[in-house]
């Protein structure tokens, strides 16, 4: 019977192919949405680990998380250096990593920090940063590149780079009088670190000595060497990461920072902030899923329609099968089998299509959105979606099958042609 | 009254389509083993309906209809389909072939549903199909690679005859198989059908609205004569 169903489908390959392709596309869409969603979540979640608090100027939890860790958006205000020093010295604090943002290099964000960054920053499953080449910066005019920056821009150790003022991709005001020598290149992490240029905090201070509120002061050029003679202690930083000696102290310190009198500050727990982010994006995600599910339903209804329209042409065929002794049940089975094969073929093709698309766009997604799409086997949630599509296909295939069955019962052998 | 070997035995058979007046009312009809019977009746007189009853696809409202001593009405649905597969071969007026099956596959289709026919043929299912096609005047080798929809109507009817005959069923029922053929082809087709029915020992019931075919058959009946339900208006 399977061969019979297969041959009958092959006989109508035009419509069959279209139907299978429709189901394949909708399957790829639904599973693709699911995959992008879960990969986005897991890649966000694995960007920062081992940090107990993130502290910045008073801002929304999600906003602070986005600009400090994901380099998305702009900080509204800074944290003064004195305040930073004071909190860093608190007895509960094990380590801190200061972060200073605002400049860029050919579209990549420049992050001012200290050696503590390379020591304490953790991503994924508490993995430390590793150097592919070189070592942390030692001098003021030295930079450490994320792996993607080095790979995309073709830099190697010892090259000089110039930092642009501001974060635009094309910037007309460069700090070209103070070039940086590349001291190290980090190993890939699959996080925004790969797309970051790291320089010492002192360098951020140095290149802005002769700047005031966004423009270079005319006639007050300070050369790179001259700058080194100035006091390069930063006046402020954008935010800082805090690691605690004991996590028990987390909430207490968070409250203390939030109630800090000298300055309006926010301290956030990365995990809690991510949860808030998810609840924000959840609505959009669900809308996307709903649309994808609708597309699947349309695809499956299309299959139903295609099967239904062929039923009339196939009345003769059914009568012939009945005349040689096929039971009505056999005919029901035959039609169900066709719907099942169509759905299954659509699902398999859809999954293959999805992997092909993922393989094609993953480079782009990683570089443009920092979204690292895996090509792993379908996850449980994806398999669940596939099973749902399959069952929907079966149910939708039942309708024409049942009609064909009823009709072949009432037609008997005498079909008017 | 009925000989135990009668292929078809009918007593007081009545049938009406739901919501319609009685269409079939046959007091008595016996067709013996090996007979070739021509059943003539005008369009709408219930020929196809009667054949549906013979094939066990329709069930009588009243009376008794036995094929080879078995009453299909007394069988369960599955057994009835199986009985048809095992003992009856059908040839229809037109469009007899399953378009997506090949020439030989169309012939062996009946064997798929009948273990009994398969058993009778043993391993020779395909070679018997080819023999039958050859005997019915088709060149299997040259037609093999064509779709069955490309065959002429006459050729299609021969393939249908081969399918009805394969595995030597006791009863072959032909429902106007020649109405799309010209007079010469008609006579030739009926000759071939007789030959193979004789060889297989099958009884042949052949219905048509065309009285001109009657002389070709040893026995011919008019449905309007055997069927009490036929009104003079319909018979006209
Ligand atoms: N499936 C059906 N449902 C309801 N009524 C039917 C059905 N098939 C046939 N009939 C009715 O039964 C009557 C006889 O039909 P039948 O097909 O048996 O005639 P026929 O002698 O074979 O005619 P023809 O020579 O045109 O094939 C017709 O009036 C038809 O309307
Ligand atoms: Mg008819």
TrEMBL record, chain A:
The organism's place on the tree of life at top rank: Bacteria
Membrane topology: Multi-pass membrane protein
InterPro entries named among the record's database cross-references: ABC-4/HrtB_transporter (IPR051125), ABC3_permease_C (IPR003838), MacB_PCD (IPR025857)
Cellular localization per UniProt: Cell membrane
Domain named MacB-like periplasmic core: residues: 17-259
GO cellular component: plasma membrane
Keywords, alphabetical: Cell membrane, Membrane, Transmembrane, Transmembrane helix
Record-annotated membrane-spanning stretches: 290-311, 332-361, 381-403
Domain ABC3 transporter permease C-terminal: 290-406
Official protein name in the record: Putative ABC transport system permease protein
From TrEMBL, chain B:
Keywords recorded for this protein, A-Z: ATP-binding, Nucleotide-binding
InterPro entries: AAA+_ATPase, ABC_transporter-like_ATP-bd, ABC_transpr_LolD-like, P-loop_NTPase
One Gene Ontology term, aspect cellular component: plasma membrane
Residues covered by the ABC transporter domain: 8-236
GO molecular function, one term: transmembrane transporter activity
The protein, known as: Putative ABC transport system ATP-binding protein
Organism from which the protein derives: Pseudofulvimonas gallinarii
């Amino acid at each position: 019977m399977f061969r019979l169903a297969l041959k009958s489908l092959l006989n109508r390959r035009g419509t069959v192919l279209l139907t299978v392709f429709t189901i394949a596309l909708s399957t790829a869409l639904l599973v693709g949405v699911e995959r992008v969603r879960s990969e986005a979540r897991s890649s966000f979640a694995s960007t920062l680990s081992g940090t107990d608090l993130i502290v910045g100027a008073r801002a929304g939890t999600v906003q602070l998380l986005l600009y400090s860790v994901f380099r998305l958006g702009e900080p509204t205000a800074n944290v003064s250096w004195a305040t930073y020093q004071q909190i860093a010295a608190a007895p509960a604090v094990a380590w801190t990593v200061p972060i200073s943002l605002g400049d860029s290099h050919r579209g990549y964000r420049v992050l001012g920090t200290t050696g503590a960054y390379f020591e304490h920053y953790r991503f994924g499953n508490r993995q430390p940063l590793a150097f592919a080449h070189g070592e942390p910066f030692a001098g003021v005019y030295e930079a450490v590149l994320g792996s993607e920056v080095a790979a995309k821009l073709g830099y190697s150790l010892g090259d000089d780079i110039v930092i642009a003022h501001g974060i635009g991709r094309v910037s007309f005001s460069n700090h070209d009088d103070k070039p940086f020598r590349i001291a190290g290149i980090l190993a890939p992490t699959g996080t925004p670190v790969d797309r970051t240029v790291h320089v010492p905090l002192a360098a951020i201070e140095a290149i802005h000595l002769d700047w005031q509120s966004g423009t270079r002061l005319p006639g007050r050029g300070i050369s790179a060497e001259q700058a080194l003679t100035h006091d390069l202690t930063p006046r402020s930083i954008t935010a800082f990461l805090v690691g605690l000696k004991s996590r028990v102290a987390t909430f207490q310190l968070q409250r203390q920072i939030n109630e800090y009198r000298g300055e309006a500050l926010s301290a956030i727990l990365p995990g809690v902030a991510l949860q808030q982010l998810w609840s924000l994006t959840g609505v959009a995600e669900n809308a996307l899923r709903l649309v994808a599910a609708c597309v699947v339903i349309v695809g499956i209804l299309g299959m139903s329609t295609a099967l239904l329209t062929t039923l009339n042409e196939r009345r003769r065929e059914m009568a012939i099968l009945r005349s040689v002794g096929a039971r009505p049940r056999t005919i029901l089975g035959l039609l169900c089998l066709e719907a099942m094969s169509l759905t299954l073929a659509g699902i398999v093709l859809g999954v293959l299509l999805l992997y092909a698309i993922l393989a094609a766009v993953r480079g782009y997604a990683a570089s443009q959105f920092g979204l690292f799409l895996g090509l792993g086997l379908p996850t449980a949630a994806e398999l669940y979606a596939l099973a749902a599509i399959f069952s929907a296909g079966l149910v939708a295939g039942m309708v024409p099958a049942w009609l064909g069955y009823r009709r072949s019962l009432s037609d008997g052998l005498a079909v008017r042609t | 009254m009925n000989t135990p070997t009668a292929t078809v035995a009918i007593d007081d058979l009545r049938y009406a389509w739901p919501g319609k007046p009685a269409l079939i009312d046959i007091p008595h009809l016996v067709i013996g083993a090996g007979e070739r019977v021509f059943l003539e009746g005008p369009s709408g007189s219930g020929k196809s309906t009667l054949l549906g009853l013979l094939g066990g696809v329709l069930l009588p409202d009243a009376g008794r209809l036995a094929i080879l001593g078995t009453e299909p009405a007394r069988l369960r649905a599955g057994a009835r389909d199986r009985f048809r597969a095992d003992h009856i071969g059908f040839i229809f007026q037109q469009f007899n072939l399953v378009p997506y099956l090949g020439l030989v596959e169309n012939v062996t289709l009946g064997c798929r549903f009948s273990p009994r026919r398969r058993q009778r043929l043993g391993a020779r299912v395909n070679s018997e199909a080819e023999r039958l096609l050859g005997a019915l005047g088709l060149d299997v080798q040259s037609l093999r690679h064509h779709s069955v929809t490309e065959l002429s109507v006459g050729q299609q009817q021969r393939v249908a005859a081969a399918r009805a005959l394969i595995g030597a069923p006791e009863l072959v029922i032909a429902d106007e198989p020649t109405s799309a053929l010209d007079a010469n082809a008609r006579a030739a087709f009926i000759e071939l059908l007789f030959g193979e029915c004789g060889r297989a020992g099958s009884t042949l019931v052949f219905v048509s609205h065309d009285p001109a075919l009657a002389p070709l058959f040893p026995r011919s009946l008019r449905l309007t004569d055997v069927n009490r339900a036929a009104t003079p208006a319909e018979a006209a």
